[in-house]
Amino acid sequence: MPLRTHLEKYNLVCTSMKKYDYLIVGSGLFGATFAHLAHKQGKTCLVIDKRPHLGGNIYCENIEGINVHKYGAHIFHTSNKEVWNFVNSIVEFNRYTNSPVANYKGKLYNLPFNMNTFYQMWGVTTPAEAQAKIDEQKAEAVAKMKADGVSEPRNLEEQAQVLIGKDIYERLIKGYTEKQWGRKCTDLPAFIIKRLPVRLIFDNNYFNDKYQGIPIGGYNKLIDGLLEGADTKVSVDFFKDEIELPNGNKGLLKDHWKELASKLVFTGKIDEFYNYQFGKLNYRTVRFEQETIDCPNYQGNAVVNYTEREVPYTRVIEHKHFEMFGAEVYETPKTVISKEYSTEWKDGMEPYYPVNDKENSELYAQYKNLADQEEDVIFGGRLAEYKYYDMAPIIEKEKSESIASEYLMVCRILRM
């Protein structure tokens, strides 16, 4: 019998099942990692997910022999050797290096901003030439602000031009950012862009970390490994599904979860947990338009950003390039692409990114105050903490004797 039991026929009848140490709502990276750490400490976990599959947003669907990142591209990266060894002990990671390309009106530019980008932009061939061009354009931006009687950037447009200059801003930042946020850059606050890394070397590696890659066979293998030892059930809605109570009656799981477990780990929306009593938090979301194409190689790269405003999608992901390299690409005759469209979130849509403005931050603080008073509920992950976590789970393998300490570790784990 496998260590991880998938409870296909388990109807959440608490009278016929053992009581767990933890009921974990959500099988994404936070929930799965918590279950893994708890199991190592001899704790029992039931992990539920309202989707018909495990894995949350890192779930992969196999199409035409290609592991498709169903909810957007995820690239694992870290500089911590212990972390790298840990995840590779669960599933071997490949050598994928994230080197996105930007397409602006049919012309291609390497990302992040480096000497390849500056050569493509201005024809400069030395770091000194590139720096001089950047400094010249930054000075022009500062002078324009002074002419307007201001000394500090008033919006994202001014901030970006002070940091990198007009050319790179207009071709590689402006349109892409406006599509992401659904607003003009002149209407976005300056603090959104605090810095823009500039590399005066020929290096297209997007990350600065020592290690990066994709699990061989897809992220499902990582999730399955993390969930070994936990019971799991999919297609269970914490807020809508019922459980059978000891007296024979039925009640909503959200109201009677203590019949199943001693503690709750909640990774869903914190405002929904508290029935939106202070109001609803806002999000940005992403819509994916997926297509299977009858050719082995569509764009030659996993990630191509479309930075002009007139192209409605922000980027195109060609999934096979995350795990197939060189001649391998042509061994699979078809390919799968996903076009990503950033949009405002509405009820019924999948929430992706928190909107960290003053109004939403203050609203979240009210919910956080309630959460801090919970003794048996642990809130974790991007929705429960209303915090954007980059998909670079830094999994620190630390020895600890208390789940509280393990929870704190998970909080450090998931900078995503």
Can you put this structure into words, describing what you see?
- Helix content is 28%, strand content 20%.
- The strands form five sheets. Strands 8-7-15-16-17-14-18 form a seven-stranded mixed β-sheet. The protein has a six-stranded parallel β-sheet with strand order 1-10-3-2-13-19, covered by helices on one side. It has a two-stranded antiparallel sheet with strand order 4-5.
- The protein has helices at 29-40, 81-90, 115-122, 127-147, 156-164, 166-181, 219-226, 253-256, 270-273, 358-372, 403-413, and strands at 5-6, 20-25, 45-49, 60-63, 66-69, 76-78, 101-104, 107-110, 211-213, 231-234, 242-244, 250-252, 261-266, 283-293, 303-306, 315-318, 335-344, 353-354, 377-379.
- Helix 1 (29-40) packs antiparallel against helix 11 (403-413), helix 4 (127-147) runs antiparallel to helix 5 (156-164) and helix 5 (156-164) runs antiparallel to helix 6.
- It is built from eleven helices and 19 strands.
- The relative contact order is 0.20.
